[in-house]
Fold each of these.
Amino acid sequence: LLQNDRQQARAEVLRAVELDPDFAEARKLLAKVHAMLGEHDLAIEEARKVLRQRPDDVETRIGLAQSLVFLGKPDEARKELDAIPSDLRDAQVNFALGRIDMLQGKIEGAREKLIAALEDHPAHPEILESLLAVDAKSGNLDDALARIEKAVTEKPDDANLQRLSGIALLAAGQGPQAEARLRRAIEL
C-alpha cells in the first residue's frame, strides 16, 4: 500500500485474513484498501467485521461512514457516527458529521460541527473549505474570510490555504486580491 500498489495490497491482506479470520488489524486495513479502490460495499462489510470485535474503533467507524456516504446512504452514515461515544468524538468525527449535515442541507448543524472541528485544527484547509461553502450558502462570507485569513497568517507558505483564500476572495467579489492569492498558491 505504501508503494501505491493497491491491488497487491488487497491480495496480501486478503491472504492474511484467510490465515487468521480474527486478525482485526488486517481486516481494518482491508476495509481501507477496498475504500481506496472504490469497492465501498466490500469496505463496509470488512469495517462491520472489525467493529464487531472493536466497537470503539473510531477510525474504522469513520471509514465505514464515508463508504456509506459514497453509496448514497447518509442516514446510515450518521447512525454510525452517532454511535461514537461523546468522549471519543474528535475533530475527525465532527468534520464527518458536518459534511453529512452539508449533504443533507442542514446548514446550521453543519456550521456548528465544522466550527467544533476547526477548534482542534484551526488551519485545516478541508475544514475551512467546508465552512466556506456553508457560510456562502448562509451569506456569512465575512466570517469565512476572517477564518481563512487568520489561517493564512499562521501558515503563509501553505499552498492549499493560499488557494482557498483566493477562492474566498473571488466569492466575495475581490478579484485582484483573489488573483494575487491564487498566483501565490501556484508559486508555492
Note: The radius of gyration is 19 Å.
Amino acid sequence: MPLSFLAGVRVIDLGQYLPGPYAAQILADLGAEVVKVESPQGDPLRRLGPVDSDGTTFAYKLLNAGKTVVRLDLKNDGDRATFEALVAGADALMESFRPGALARLGLGPDRLRALNPRLVHASLSGWGYDGPYAGRAGHDLNYMAIGGGLAESGTAERPTMTYPPVADFASAQHAALAVVAALFGRARNGTGAFLDLSIMETVLGWQGLNL
C-alpha cells in the first residue's frame, strides 16, 4: 500500500540526473505530490545510457515515476511566470543547480521567499554555497574523493570507485530528510526555510569514525 504521510504536500522538482530527482522521488514515495519542471529539452537523464523502445532510459523512469512533468524555459518571461505560480502554491522546492544559477534567472532565494514565505527551498549542490569550490562542477567521484570516502574504499594503493554512486544517493536521502524536518518545523512556526545542502559534505559527515 502506498505511504500517505506527506499527502497534501506539493513539491516542485527542478533537479536533473540523479541526486535532486531521487530526493524528490523519496518525498513522492512518502505521499507527496511532485511536479517535475524540466527545460524544453528535457532532463538529460532521459537519454543518458541505453533507452527503451520509447526513447527514454530506464534510469529516468525509475527516478521520476509518479511525478507530473512539465517543460518550462525559465529564461522566457511567460514560462518563468508559470513557474512562479507553481512556487507560490508549493510546499517545497527541490533543486540541484550550482549556487547562483537560479538567482541569475531572477529566482534567487529572496525572490522565492517573497513569492511564498512558507516555502521550504532545498538547494542540493556539489560543494554548497560557501568556499573555494562553490562554483565548480563535480561528479560523484569528486565528492567522494574530497569528502574522504574514496580513500576508505578499496586499498591505499588503489582506491575503488563504488557503485551505485554513494555520494549522489546519500545526499539525496539527507536532502529528503532535511525537507521533511523543515516541513515539520514549519508546522510549528509557520515559516519556510532555505536549505543549503552539499553533496560533498554528506560524504564528509560520514567520515567521523575514520577521522
Note: The first helix runs from residue 19 to 29.
Amino acid sequence: AEIQRLRQSLNVRRIGLRADQLVEAIELAGMSERAVDPDWLLRWKDAAARAHATDFQEMWARVLVDEVRQPGSHNLRTLAFLNTVSKADMTTLRFMMRLDLGGFISLEAAGYFSKDIHGPMFTQMEAMGLLQPDPGKVRIRSVEEKNFRAVLRCGNKALYIEGPDEGSELQLLARPFTALGREIAVLFSTGSADTAYLFALGNALKKRGFHVDIGDWMGGSDK
C-alpha cells in the first residue's frame, strides 16, 4: 500500500512538471484571476494519480493547464469521462481528430473513408458521446459578400475555398461533434492534419465547381 501511494504521488509530480512545461507556451494575458475550484482539483488529483502511461500523464497535464488558465474549461463530467478513456480509445481519438474541421468531420471526402476502418471508429466515437447520432448538413459561411470565399482549418493545414456564387454559404454533409466532442477534440488534437483526407475533400469540392488550395495554417493556434 505504501509503494502504491508513493507511485501515485510520483505520477502527480510528473504530471505537474509536464504542466509547468506547457505553461511556458501560454500568454499570461490570457490567464484568469479566478481560483480553481477545490473540489475540481481534488477530483483531478485522484484521477491523475492513477495515470502511469506517458500519454495519459500528458492528457492530465493539459487538462490542469486549461483549468488553471480558465477555470470552468473542463467540468466534473469531463473529468469523469476522461477517467474512462482507454489506450485504444486514445488511439482512435488521436486518429479521428486529424480529420476535425472545426467541430465536424466532412463525409464528402469521396474515396477516403473505408467502411471497415473508419466505420468502427465513427461508431466508437458516437458511443462515447463525442459525435452527433446522425450525419447532417454543416453550413460554411463566406467571408465575402459577393464571391464565395472561406477557410477550413484542419490542424496545421487549411483548405482555402473560392467558388461559384452559391449564396453566402457552402453546405457539407458531415458528422458534427457534440459539445463534449469539441472539448475533447482540443485535448487529443495532434496538431497534424490528415493530408489524404484534405486532398479527397478538396477534389470533391472541385467537382462542384469550387477552386480549392491546400496550404499551411498561418492563423496561429488556440493553445
Note: The longest helix spans residues 2-23.
